[in-house]
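Same chain as my last thread, 268 residues:
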Amino acid sequence: MVSGKISRKIAAKEELLLLLPGIDRVLESEPAVLRIDAEPVMVIGDIHGDLEALEFILGKRQEMNCENILFLGDYVDRGPQGTEVLINLFRLKLEDPEHIFLLRGNHETVDMNLYYGYFEEIGFDRSFLSSVSRTYDEMPIAAVISGNTFCVHGGINGTGSIEDIRKEEDFAFPYLWNDPSKRPGLTASTRGSTVKEFGPDIVDGFLHTNNLKRIIRGHTALEDGYRWWFDGKLLSLFSCPDYVGLGNAAAFVLFEKEEIKLFVFGKQ
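reply #2:
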């Protein structure tokens, strides 16, 4: 049984490596901020190596006949099948690059993978992780749906223009890591000294600067799979049920004609 599991993991790694050159070319061609104007769009939060959750979501996509699907990042770590999740997502992207969108999350970084599960999952293979990390570097950081809804993994870094967002990891860091807060301004975070929390005034300024209506983000495990902030100006999503045994529900969104429909699944 153990040897069979190891052989499956080796085969998955080999399959993923074969996909990387093609997916790198596709992602490299995309800007740091995607513009998605076709509707409807499914928006998906963190997956964290939960292949069953991903398969459920993709099944719902077929049921809804929804071509466009946007993932907000965090595909690996904390769950057992990060490689298989990446394989499925990269296959989809290669088959249908105009309708599948993959943003970068804070766990699409080597520093996180070394300590939160993915490095162990891949057998502590530094060469393999290095190859995958080059793909992380090409992922877009954010997306704007229908010209009015800003989608990102973590959050925002003040009230500046989205035209200034870049893929470089140092620049992208706040968008992968920052969290909303009831406190005004940009304030300290329990996540670490370089992470910030942004308040309602920052959200208002950011939306005004960029002529936007709302933000949809991931990054935070939530009991119900979602949480509204700031009178509906920000929606937080999490799409990995029973995350590290917490028993939480998961959620995703269908965005169409200015309406956000929430779908909750997987409550333990």
